[in-house]
């Protein structure tokens, strides 16, 4: 890095000399640089030197972030093995400090990312790490207080798994560039590998192919591209037609439009191949236009289906009331009531996950696609965790730690459902043609650059402050 900065300084000094304007006394006018070839070479040299500095600086930042992440992962492994409160307080204090440092670095990195999808994924990972830290604190305390309780162990194991997935996503985003690790990007995290292609993007690609064919005509290659493009789009519609929450009318309409698309495409290709060596005529152009209109109608039907499902959920259910009944049943030690509410929460969680899956298909912006994926994964994890926390409190109704643990997980569930309602609103705005307002990146930590401007003042951090007070409080009770 020092050598690269020195080279950039030398290149800058060289171009400064070449661009120096002097005053010519005999002619009484300013004289600029005469050797333009040398000036061009100097400019290229300066550009190369600055690029080298920027690449090296980026590698330094990535290495620093990955080192801190390795420290967090190591502390997380140690935290999973603790067997008493004294050791837990010491290890968690170190873990909290490292998490704050990781949050600062990932926040800086998130602001530097240019790709919208990667920036959204980093934001999702940071959100999970921050919220998961508090769930980790209460679940570990509950497990230490009641080591014989199987539901407490399941609760704790779920939080550890969630945090490790978030750190896996951070590593993937950070190293997803050729310059980050010498040309090889990390493989996609395992929990994201099963996600199918976004239906909205597949339909857009299919419509673009129609426009190209409308101008250039049909060939063997375009026929294959159009056919495979349509089949890729229709394959994803199974999530809509197979959903138990899709109405019969909507399902029949989707299937009818699917068959219409197939028949119209076949007719267009047959007409185009019959005149393969000729320019597309008026009949072919009209068929292509009808196919495009049907595709747009098909996309709107899918949007209406997904938004109708999501709106039905929020108009017919009250998550606040459901989790309140779960808390009351846990405090009363009513295991039968807990079992009854478990069935309701599982059904409600499944319905929310179905809505997330359909919202992901119709999302027209990458951040919304990432948000829908995150909401689906988070609901799939949080549902069983809320149930485990309630079962633990039901088994130990007088335990203050178990009650606090259930409160934390219920709050996390409610926040996730609120986030999903905001996602539905934003997706609706996009589908209705309204521009989505630019969202400010959520950061409970200070904005990047605060430390650089005020090096002697330690920035206030809500996460660090809360962790510090919680750890000190419980250390006095050991």
What does this structure look like?
The protein is mostly helical and 478 residues long. The chain is built from 16 helices and two strands. A two-stranded antiparallel sheet has the order 1-2. The longest helix has 46 residues, at 36-81. The radius of gyration is 29 Å and the shape is flat. The chain starts with a helix and ends with a helix.
Using brief descriptors, characterize the structure shown.
single chain, 478 residues, mainly alpha, two-stranded antiparallel ribbon, 77% helix, flat, disordered C terminus
Give the helix/strand layout:
Blueprint (H helix, E strand, L loop, with lengths): L1 H17 L3 E3 L4 E3 L4 H46 L3 H28 L3 H30 L4 H25 L24 H18 L3 H17 L1 H4 L6 H27 L7 H35 L2 H14 L2 H28 L3 H30 L4 H32 L18 H4 L8 H14 L3
Antiparallel strand pairs: 1-2
Brief summary of the model shown:
The chain has 478 residues and is mainly alpha-helical. Helix content is 77%, strand content 1%.
């Amino acid at each position: 890095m020092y050598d690269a900065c020195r080279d950039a300084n030398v290149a800058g000094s060289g171009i400064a000399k070449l661009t120096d304007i002097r005053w010519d006394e005999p002619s009484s006018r300013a004289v600029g640089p005469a050797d333009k070839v040398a000036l061009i070479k100097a400019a290229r040299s300066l550009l190369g030197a600055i690029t080298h500095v920027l690449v090296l600086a980026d590698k330094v930042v990535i290495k620093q972030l990955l080192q801190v992440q390795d420290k967090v992962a190591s502390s997380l492994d140690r935290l999973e093995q603790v067997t008493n409160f004294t050791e837990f307080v010491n290890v968690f204090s170190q873990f909290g400090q490292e998490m704050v440092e990781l949050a600062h670095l990932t926040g800086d990195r998130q602001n530097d990312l240019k790709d919208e999808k990667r920036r959204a994924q980093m934001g999702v990972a940071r959100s999970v790490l921050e919220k998961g830290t508090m769930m980790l604190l209460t679940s570990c305390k509950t497990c230490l207080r009641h080591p014989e309780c199987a539901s407490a162990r399941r609760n704790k194991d779920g939080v550890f798994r969630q945090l490790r997935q978030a750190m896996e996503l951070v590593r993937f985003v950070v190293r997803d560039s050729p310059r980050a690790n010498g040309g090889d990007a990390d493989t996609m995290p395992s929990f994201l590998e099963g996600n199918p292609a976004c239906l909205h993007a597949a339909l857009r690609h299919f419509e673009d192919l129609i426009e190209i064919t409308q101008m250039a005509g049909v060939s063997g290659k375009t026929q294959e591209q159009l056919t495979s493009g349509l089949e890729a789009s229709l394959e994803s519609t199974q999530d809509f037609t197979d959903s138990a929450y899709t109405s019969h009318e909507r399902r029949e309409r989707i299937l009818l439009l699917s068959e219409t698309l197939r028949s119209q495409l076949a007719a267009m290709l047959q007409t185009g191949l019959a005149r393969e060596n000729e320019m597309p005529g008026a009949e072919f152009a009209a068929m292509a236009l009808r196919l495009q209109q049907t595709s747009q109608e098909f996309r709107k039907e899918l949007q209406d289906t997904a938004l109708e499902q999501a709106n039905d959920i929020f108009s017919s259910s009250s998550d606040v009331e459901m989790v309140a009944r779960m808390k009351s049943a846990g405090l009363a030690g009513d295991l039968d009531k807990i079992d009854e509410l478990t069935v309701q929460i599982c059904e409600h969680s499944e319905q929310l996950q179905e809505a997330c899956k359909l919202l992901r298909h119709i999302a027209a912006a990458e951040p919304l696609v990432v948000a829908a994926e995150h909401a689906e994964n988070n609901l799939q994890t949080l549902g069983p965790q809320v149930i485990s926390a309630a079962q633990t409190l039901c088994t130990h109704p007088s335990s203050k730690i178990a009650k606090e643990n259930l409160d934390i997980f219920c709050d996390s569930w409610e926040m996730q459902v609120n986030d999903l309602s905001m996602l539905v609103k934003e997706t609706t705005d996009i589908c209705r043609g309204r521009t989505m307002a630019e969202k400010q990146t959520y950061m409970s930590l200070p904005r990047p650059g605060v430390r650089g401007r005020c090096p002697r003042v330690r920035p206030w951090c809500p996460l660090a402050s809360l962790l510090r007070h919680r750890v000190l409080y419980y250390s006095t009770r050991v």
